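dude i think i finally got it to work??
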Amino acid sequence: MESKRVQPQLITDYRSLITGSPSLTTTLIALWVLAMISLPIMKWIWGPEIIPLGLTLGVLLQATAVFLMVRDSWGWPKTMGTAVLIAALTLFVEWLGSTTGFPFGSYSYTDLMQPQIAHVPVLIPFAWFMMLPAAWVVARLMQAQLPGRWANNRWLYLLLAGLAFTAWDLFLDPQMVSWGLWVWHEPSGYFGIPWVNYVGWLGTAVLLTALIRPQNLPARPLLIIYTITWFLETFGLLFFWGLVGPALVGGTVMGLFVWLGWRSVFSKQ
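look at this
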């Protein structure tokens, strides 16, 4: 049963993320955090033109660290196959969305993020990959705390994974729009972001989770990734980017997932 397979994840000894000699994964995480912390400073020195470059660096560092974490549990073939599937499907969905308005609403990418394929930045699939495994882990940890059949309900797991991933966009979309990386043709809803966008995010994340059926992921390392992302987004938007509303809402919602994830980890110790 799935709930029994969760237990080895909760006691995974991944000391290289916290103590001991730094591994490549730990180094990448440190560089990712440094890149994100440095972004406001780089903007102050070189102007807003530096933002796409700094953002690209941060996404690639985080995505690579997540890839190595997943590879340690799944091996190269499955990890590469998962990355390719996520890239292909998200590129298609983002092209469909920016072309037809389905499933996210009517929006367009600007030319600031390059290179692009069919007017969709190549960086976008990396952004999906860098957070999906962390959302999968958070959903599994949350579900492990539920009683009886709910701890093994596949449909509930898909929903929780989709919600854990979509919570991140409560920060992301207002932030990227404020940076001019994409524009909504009819701003509305959540700080100018149409509510249908979040339905699209949820549906796409649920579909990817259903297709991939993730199991046996390293829980603690990926939960750390999710937690760091929440921290950087909350305090970055609040203190450096002037987006108080998204910082407070996203910080509360994604913070709830962070708390529930760590609650599960510590309750098993």
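The chain is about 70% helix and 5% strand.
im so relieved honestly
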